[in-house]
Amino acid sequence: MTNSDRKRVVVTGLGAITPIGNTLTAYWDGLLSGQNGIGPITLFDASRHECRIAGEVKGFDPHAYMDRKEAKRMDRFAQFGVSASKQAIADAQFVINDLNAEQVGVLIGTGIGGLKVLEDQQEINLTKGPDRCSPFMIPMMIANMAAGLTAIHTGAKGPNSCSVTACAAGSNAIGDAFRLVQNGYAQAMICGGTEAAVTSLSVAGFAACKAMSTRNDDPAHASRPFDKSRDGFVLGEGSGILILEELEHALARGARIYAEIVGYGATCDAYHITSPVPGGEGAARAISLALKDANLTPDQVSYINAHGTSTPANDSTETAAMKKVLGDHAYKITVSSTKSMTGHLLGGSGGIEAVAAVMAVANDRVPPTINLDNPDPDCDLDYVPHHSREQIVNVALSNSFGFGGHNVTLAFKKYR
Question: Is residue 196 within 8 Å of residue 181, measured between CB atoms?
């Protein structure tokens, strides 16, 4: 298919369940106000753990989106994904029925899937015996189930899949969904990321990697991307979902359009299981490919929602990658890491951060990077410290990078 044959794809619905709000409005307002979503872990007893803080989702009621029996048979990551998807569908005022169901697909990424269920059932297996394990264990823990259950709950019968590319999973899902609509395999896609990995085993594992912040006595300032005193990421949870729709289909039904998705770049470092390649070569290629795919030049970029994990390796490497691609223009744009407020949602991060990038385009507002008190000398761009900013956002990029060397950049622009 030639570029001229590709369909234009727009964002018509958004849903978000996050550590700073469980609706799109609450999440966006929280970002703009610099709200901190990180605190002591309450989901399990973390007293023996080296890291005892996380960005937990607060006050989430799955029964607002499904009945009690259904909720009981879902891991938390799937509850988040289904619920955020229902929000996004309602936001888009999109009706799935017998006439269009086969043209509506679902692609929801996750880094880990149903880890809590796996932990709980292994404990039962060891203490009570294998015959006491739940018959729902497998369908509750497997990573594809957020996508599968979303289809079951919404009736979407089109392409359905799940990307599992660590912290790039949500962005890969959105990019792959974009391709499906762009090339005519679906009229609309429900896509994004979800994660619920604030569990004892997960926190222990990441702490063993020396990847997490141990600023336990000061959780409000623990996630500090691009800051000289950053000491690791803070784990978060939640889900961000977008409705991507073929432009003519959206216009025909009078849909509100937030932004147009125009570019998708995906690469691999092929270097190390956890560390980015020095200099950010793989990340730079993802940014370049997204711009090329979108037919954009570096000087057209207004804002980048950075991966910005608050780890020593990522933030300087990502900064180098942005400067490599954008050149001097890198110093003229705004960059921010919303992980400073939400923590790192792993496979869910690409979802909520794409939502943030789309909202920046739609509202001409850029969320801040909070806790940026002493910038790392190697991180010398405009990271919008502490306070949100009003500016024209014609083009926004969203970066996501994952263990295994996965790099993804998505490009959104104002619909015209």
Answer: no
